[in-house]
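Supplementary notes for students who missed Thursday's class. We covered one full example, reproduced here. Read the sequence, then the structure, then the short commentary at the end.
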Amino acid sequence: MSEVTAVREEDRFDVKAMGKWLRSFIDSEELPEVEQFRSGASNLTYLLKYPNRELVLRRPPVGIKAASAHDMKREFLIQSKLQPVYPLVPSMIALCDDHSVIGSDFYVMDRVVGQIFRRDIPGDITAADISVMADSLIIGLVQLHAVDADILMELNKGHGYVQRQVQGWSKRYRNALTDDVPSGEKVMAWLDAMQPEDIDSCVIHGDWRIDNVVFDLRQGRILGVLDWELATVGDPLMDLGSALAYWVDRDDEPAFAALRRQPSHLPGMPTRQEFVARYLELSGRRCDDFTFYEVFGLFRLAVIIQQIWARYRVGQTTNPAFAGFGDAVKTLINRAEGKIG
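Structure (token representation):
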């Protein structure tokens, strides 16, 4: 299946107005052909195809959003500052905060062309390819966490990151709660009671997954890392826990395995436990019990999905990919409750 499709009716924008605005930043007088990326459940992402160049446009979804979510200026700032010191970030072209152009803030960046792997992978991928994919994914996260956090000084709120995250995501879940999903109160109370002190403060991605990484397996490396919407300065183990909420092992129960959106289950991929051990080895950090971070990651993912589910239920988005999100929230909350007994 192609990564792009025709733009959904609800997600269309004024291509002529956008193209006119963009002309001052790129060397082209032509209007681009516009397609929409299938992936992504939060911000909307489009492919702008010019005769000799491909760009990517990011904008918020239509409808009511969480107050702190979908901040295009923030996302653009993070990537602009990180790219010189962490070159896996795509090169930024321009940010537009003039809502007369397409009705919202948006930004445009270079497209990183390479291999992106989602739920299923091509049949010609070898065991060696899978090993490269796994190793480079862990190494890339360790390298990001080694970036000097001062590069994003304006995002550093200081000590108390874990506490702020527990409180913030709990508030978001309660605000987005619908009558067809669990209350989550048991999980939120446990997270509040069991939260550890911050172990460090560094640049974190917030959505580190295989399908947010562009690979070049022939060269055995990562070409780019995408979707920096949730990046900030914070605790690295919280970032690792968030990443592993998406990581489905080969022997996971069917309900959780059904949520798999990346090929983490394949032979040659590390288990969650092996992923954590390898990360700690390479980063030099210590963690004697990862349970809190695992439960937090599951709950946080449940909140992200629930915010989208709440919009879907009232018709603010009609993307058919969201039709099962209510069940996904139930699965994640139940799994988190199972981890805490």
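Commentary. The first strand starts at residue 4 and ends at 5. Residues 32 and 50 are 5 Å apart (CA to CA). If anything here is unclear, bring it to office hours.
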